[in-house]
């Protein structure tokens, strides 16, 4: 089967790769030489780059676009995260990173992310993101359309 | 005050820098241009590199030396970690990373790490490390001398 | 047109992408968030990671496989390199990196590499690689089959 | 001798470290775990980060400050560079990176950089930087005070 890189994978494509249950967003990539450390496996910090890359894509798709010099929209800040390393990643391995919203409040939300390779879950990352006003004046409420999407597409629940 | 980089800081030096309480191991460094991302602050994945660097030093000091091609001693693997981002880090800022053992079991232990800059706690990282035999045959028990050190120097407690 | 990532591109596929002349080896990838620096373009050091990644693949294909812990074969060392930055790379841009042998001597060879994106040459890198014996006892001669391949496939010339 | 990190080293301090001749700017640092690759030495791309870090400092000292979001001053772009790798760098090694202007034209200049460790020259990097107007309207002439400094402090020569 040809693996489609750098492109959102359909639920069917995710299922064929053994990713269960399918995630709202999933994209494939491949381990590079520069990501290995002196122990010849992917360095623990590189996982955070992979997860972040998909979060950037996810917030763009949700309409919370991370502004790189732009003027409007919230500033999206990572507040905390918990990573579990299940099995190491090696040179040239193909992998899929997933992202979906697990829960949300007025100005923050929780994402659940997974890393899959060769039909195995290799790592998970759960993090809390906070929306801030670009001018630093305080929190930025999650827009109604985004809250709807979190519930409808991702099955996320609002928290008190 | 001249900040001593790349050298373990005494409890007194840590106190002068506002680090309270002092940690079993603390070393200073400075933010570099290559650590900034497109948002002009230190990227969230870079924090894990900083914390890892001090963990490598810490396990060397403890006598659990991470072997880079060597034959003896355990293989030290990170199992999980939780990071809290408290305040962003900017270009050229000086910082101190700390490390100490919070608790341990037979073949694993928990480290508590902090990032300090300008008298403020900027981030914390709590992680679980596991010791494995180099030949892959299973877990590697924490040596008695290391357990003693965890209790005596770091004030860590054994867990059931 | 669907761009095939992480896979050697045929001369025809290279031509369709505007890469002229086609290179002995060419593979596609996409700019990631973590590769941008504080100026919001791909950092100058990241180009060297991209070029290195394709060199590793190239030496594997040539049968000069970079050994990561293995026992046989030469150690491949980069001696020098010259990079030209022609046009900056931005977030999410798709690109192709190429690699081919330009010339060779008894124990060293010169590679010419290019970076293409959106039909434009964005950067070039010319470097000299040296083969060393794994035991550090001196230079390692380029095997006859590899020399033949350099001439036959890449059109490279032996130098005095 | 205590090595002073992250601070410009005097010509005398450079001489004591075996750096000959002393450079207009030199700063010390130490190899980190995250800079090693799967071959257990510093990766070839990391050298460019080290050199870049000192160039940023150098242009700040020269008054050509790299603007990170600021409004005035030129945009400084690297046009090309040639690196020579002389001897590999290993874990925890202390090193000094140098920077000085070798020659200049109206809107561009050449920097010569060296990497020293343990009294040995480990690598050199020669690069051409170009000044551009922030609004993209063309080249930005090197200010008279900077040209004077290039000649007076660095001994650089103007080129036709």
Count the beta strands of chain A: 6
Q: Give the termini distance of chain A in whole angstroms.
A: 44 Å
Task: Give the full name of the CATH homologous superfamily of chain A.
Answer: Hotdog Thioesterase
Per the principal axes of the C-alpha atoms, what is the gross shape of chain A? globular
Describe the main β-sheet of chain A briefly: 6 strands, mixed
Low-pLDDT residue spans of chain A: none
Give the proportion of residues in helices of chain A.
10-25%
CATH topology annotation of chain A: Thiol Ester Dehydrase, Chain A
CATH level 1 class label of chain A: Alpha Beta
Helical stretch tally of chain A: 3
The average pLDDT score of chain A comes to 93
| Most residues in contact: chain pair | A-B, 19 and 20 residues
Query: Could you spell the SSE succession of chain A in H and E letters?
Result: HEHEEEEHE
Per CATH, the architecture of chain A is Roll
Beta-strand percentage of chain A?
25-35%
Could you walk me through the main structural features you see in this protein, from its secondary elements to its overall organization?
Chain A has a single domain (11-158), classed as Thiol Ester Dehydrase, Chain A (Roll). Chain A has 3 helices and 6 strands. The first copy, chain A, has helices spanning 11-16, 44-62, 144-152; strands at 25-30, 75-85, 94-104, 108-117, 120-132, 157-158. In chain A, strands 1, 2, 3, 4, 5 and 6 form a 6-stranded mixed sheet that branches. The model of chain A has no long low-confidence stretch (mean pLDDT 93). Chains in contact: A-B, A-C, A-D, B-C, B-D, C-D.
């Amino acid at each position: 089967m040809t693996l489609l890189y750098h492109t959102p994978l359909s639920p069917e494509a995710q299922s064929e790769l053994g990713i269960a249950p399918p995630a709202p967003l999933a994209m494939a990539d491949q381990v590079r030489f520069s990501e290995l450390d002196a122990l010849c496996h992917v360095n623990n910090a590189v996982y955070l780059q992979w997860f972040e890359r998909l979060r950037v894509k996810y917030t763009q798709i949700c309409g919370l676009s991370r502004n790189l010099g732009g003027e409007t929209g919230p500033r999206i800040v990572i507040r905390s995260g918990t990573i579990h390393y299940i099995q190491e990643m090696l040179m040239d391995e193909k992998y899929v990173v997933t992202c979906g919203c697990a829960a949300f409040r007025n100005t923050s939300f929780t994402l659940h992310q997974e890393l899959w390779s060769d039909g195995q879950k290799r790592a998970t990352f759960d993090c809390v993101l906070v929306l801030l006003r670009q001018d630093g004046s305080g929190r930025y409420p999650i827009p109604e359309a985004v809250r709807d999407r979190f519930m409808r597409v991702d099955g996320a629940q609002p928290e008190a």
